[in-house]
Design a protein that fits this description.
single chain; about 500 residues; mainly alpha; two-stranded antiparallel ribbon
Length: about 500
């Protein structure tokens, strides 16, 4: 059992906390994911010039493609590295310092981007991509957990979706900033890559105001006074009486003290090996990793990649298709804005089932419509319609819920490790899709979307039988429901 936070609803402290944390790193992390796409041709031309001027090497088309693949995939590799260690970092240094590390890594990456063109340095570009990748992996592993741990039960889902909402916002802002009419020009593309550092200033300006997670301070550090100060910052001295807060701490103290034991294992600082070997954690680990990995294997990035060519197939010019793709990104952001409301009012399991099953059907229809697009003219519009529907249903559940579901399935002890493994699954599957999709697209054509549809079917089955409802429930009430492995089937 862990510390119960006051069930006060939204307060100014909690709202400002969510805004500052997400503007500082979540939006910035989402920005760097998309910022390199639009100016890709300009950067590739610059790479050719730098290799000739500095190394006397004329890059062939194949060599340029290899260099470009390395630059793009460096972010994914960085994300895989820090997602693996994010649980350790969050436990040893705390959620607040981990948040600061995210901002510092992002700022370092931005400085590399801003200087690489003036220095004619491919190495700086690569280093910048690595740093923002490291920051992104840490962001997805720590920030959803940080947000969930400072929230009352009824707001846990709404706060948890702020991280994916920030990532989605960053993607759209990057699409706008990278347009030729903005910073996507030969002279300014490096500014387009690095201008997100302005957002990191929110972290540095308000860092000493932002509280550490009260649950982390109380359960991991045994700092009850510090936990009380953090609660006051979030919920206000006048909103909740000190006597009430102290009473809650005392009620939790007997079962949640740092020295308490369960089956010989401490409640905190659970190692990776102990979490993986614990049979009571097998099912929740499978759920977290499957949902986070399935989020990427559902094909969201592939759909965005393919949408430009689909818009061109219905007669859009190349420039118009890019603006239409920006419109799809805006729809993605608009749909994600409903996330906090949906998480507060709708059951997680219902939303996941609706989202995954709908995405499976929509992706199957998209596959057929793309395959027959040259035989039936109006199938082009079917393709556009299915893409728009896919974006909407993806954001109902498959997009936001995997980010924070681990916070609702795991006690505080194994939670950082479980969230880290989920983030590792997400980044690993993202890497697989990024590397395999172009090749499979050339071989399979439209049928490249079938594996994504099958993934959504498998997720639907897993959720229907094994994901318990977590909305409005204490973690201690949910944990026993998934403690018996695959015998823990959901009872309708």
């Amino acid at each position: 059992m862990e510390l119960k936070l006051p069930d006060t609803g939204w307060t100014w402290g909690l709202c400002w906390f969510g805004v500052i944390v997400n503007l500082s790193v979540s939006v910035a992390a989402g920005y760097q994911v998309s910022s390199i796409n639009a100016p890709a041709k300009l950067i590739q031309d610059w790479l050719c010039t730098v290799f000739v001027d500095r190394y006397g090497v004329q890059l062939t088309a194949n060599a340029l493609q290899i260099v470009w693949s390395v630059i793009v995939s460096t972010v994914l590799l960085g994300g895989i590295i820090t997602s693996h260690f994010s649980g350790y970092i969050a436990t040893i240094y705390g959620r607040k310092k981990s948040f600061l590390f995210c901002a510092l890594l992002l700022t370092g990456g931005a400085l590399c981007f801003l200087c690489c063109r003036a220095a004619s340095s491919v190495e700086l570009l690569l280093l910048g991509r690595l740093l923002v990748g490291l920051a992104s992996g840490l962001t997805t592993g720590v920030i959803p957990m940080y947000l969930a741990e400072v929230s009352p039960i009824k707001l846990r889902g709404a706060m948890g979706v702020l991280c994916p909402l920030g990532l989605t916002t960053g993607v759209v802002v990057a699409q706008v900033a990278s347009l030729e009419q903005a910073l996507g020009t030969e002279e300014h593309w490096h500014y387009a890559l690095g201008c997100f550092a302005v957002l990191n200033l929110f972290c540095y300006a308000f860092y000493f105001w932002i509280p550490e997670s009260p649950k982390y301070l109380y359960s991991v550090k045994g700092d009850q006074a510090g936990s009380l100060r953090a609660i006051r910052k979030l919920f206000g001295r006048h909103t909740i009486g000190d006597d009430y807060i102290k009473l809650q701490m005392e009620c939790a103290n007997g079962q949640n003290s740092p020295s308490s034991q369960e089956d010989g294992q401490p409640q905190v600082n659970r190692s990776l090996w102990s979490v993986v070997r614990d049979p009571t954690l097998t099912l929740p680990l499978v759920l977290v990793c499957a949902l986070q990995g399935g989020q990427q294997l559902s094909g969201i990035n592939a759909v965005f990649f393919y949408s430009v060519s689909i818009f061109e197939s219905v007669g859009f010019s190349s420039q118009a298709a890019k603006f239409a793709n920006l419109g799809v990104g805006c729809l993605n952001l608009f749909a994600s804005l409903f996330g906090p409301l949906l998480m507060a009012r709708c059951n997680r399991r219902t939303l996941c089932l609706l989202s995954c099953s709908s995405c499976a059907i929509i992706l199957f229809v998209l596959t057929l419509s793309i395959h027959f697009i040259h035989l039936i003219d109006w199938f082009s519009y079917v393709c556009i319609g299915t893409i728009l529907l896919y974006i909407i249903f993806y954001q109902f559940g498959l997009g936001p819920i995997p980010f924070f579901i681990g916070s609702e399935l795991f006690d505080l002890g194994p939670r950082p490790t479980a969230m880290a493994l989920g983030s590792l699954s997400s980044w690993g599957c993202n890497f697989i899709v990024g590397m395999a999709f172009p090749t499979l697209q050339n071989i399979w054509g439209a049928f490249v979307f079938l594996p994504f549809s099958i993934t959504c079917v498998l997720l639907t089955v897993l959720i229907k039988f094994y994901l318990p409802e977590t909305r409005g429930k204490e973690v201690t009430d949910v944990v026993p429901k998934v403690a018996h492995g695959f015998r823990s089937r959901v009872k309708e």
